[in-house]
Amino acid sequence: MGAGFTGAVIGRELAEAGIASLIVDERAHVAGNCHTERDAESGVMVHRYGPHIFHTDSERVWNYVRRFGTFEPYVNRVKTTVGGKVYSMPVNLHTINQFFGTAMSPDEARAFVASKSRTDIEDPQTFEEQAMKFVGEELYEAFFAGYTRKQWGLEPSMLPASILKRLPLRFNYDDNYFNHRFQGMPRNGYTPIVAAILDHPLIELRTGCRHEDLTEDFDHLFYSGPIDRYFNYDLGRLSYRTLDFEMIRAEGDYQGTAVMNYPDSDIPFTRIAEHKHFAPWEAGQLEKTVAFREYSRACGPDDIPYYPINLVGGMDMLQSYQDRAALERNVTFAGRLGTYQYLDMDVTIDRALDVAAAYLQQRAAA
């Protein structure tokens, strides 16, 4: 169930082992939230469900995706507008010197930030505690607090420290948003790559089809939808965030960069993404542009769930669903929604490969 990377990779691995499968998705297209398509008016390759930049340290995953499409070099360089001024993200030496109006060396900046940090927090449990230990109150309030409240709809003190641990802090001028060895963008978008993964004679694909509407019997189900939906929300609905996008059309270049964050609390959106800049090899040839203001909000019953909300404590409902899932026979819960985890694309693919391998091993041993 699901024709995103999780379902496609599992199906492909089984197919190459000689096992036929049916892959269904209730949307009219494959690739899930990674779906890309050309905007007819501007010619820009648009990430319909928000920007997806491919980055990984896994050579296995990097080689796998390049089997099915060409990736061009791409470095994600994010900017952020705070108090009417533009800064470099993630927080690096340039950001620190810009924000404090200084010209510190790496060692000076390291000592300066250390003097601002909360040394009394030894083992940060929440996002807020991690930030205070990480960068101190001033940088936290400017770049993280407001953005986090808008993104998650919660106080940072209610979110786990692991969310902030995903972001680097650098004492040099490196503004590459990611630390991973392998980074790139698919030349023709993500959808053709997922379609190529699914292109196998032992894979049957049905789009516009809900898992609940299937009548056939199957040996095994790999389920990548919301875990609470699988159980008909019997114990209640888990918390997810969804995104709304407000389109901006313009001539030429709208903001001069792919992603501009807006952490200030008085601005309702979290960021603006201008999609032509995700394909720099063709951006200069496009006379028109398209960008999207991104708004995050609580996911309702009829919305697309983008990512789960893991709170510090209070996850009893999730544990109950996971306990029930463990008792299901011949069902594997996978992917971001099936495991209720915030997973990047590379981790999703890596885990899908592991899930398929585990199933094949179990099947061979039976």
Automatic annotation (TrEMBL):
<comment type="similarity">
    <text>Belongs to the UDP-galactopyranose/dTDP-fucopyranose mutase family.</text>
</comment>
<dbReference type="InterPro" id="IPR004379">
    <property type="entry name" value="UDP-GALP_mutase"/>
</dbReference>
<feature type="domain" description="UDP-galactopyranose mutase C-terminal">
    <location>
        <begin position="142"/>
        <end position="342"/>
    </location>
</feature>
<dbReference type="GO" id="GO:0050660">
    <property type="term" value="F:flavin adenine dinucleotide binding"/>
</dbReference>
<keyword id="KW-0274">FAD</keyword>
<dbReference type="GO" id="GO:0005829">
    <property type="term" value="C:cytosol"/>
</dbReference>
<dbReference type="Pfam" id="PF03275">
    <property type="entry name" value="GLF"/>
</dbReference>
<dbReference type="InterPro" id="IPR015899">
    <property type="entry name" value="UDP-GalPyranose_mutase_C"/>
</dbReference>
<keyword id="KW-0413">Isomerase</keyword>
<dbReference type="GO" id="GO:0008767">
    <property type="term" value="F:UDP-galactopyranose mutase activity"/>
</dbReference>
<keyword id="KW-0285">Flavoprotein</keyword>
<dbReference type="Pfam" id="PF13450">
    <property type="entry name" value="NAD_binding_8"/>
</dbReference>
<protein>
    <recommendedName>
        <fullName>UDP-galactopyranose mutase C-terminal domain-containing protein</fullName>
    </recommendedName>
</protein>
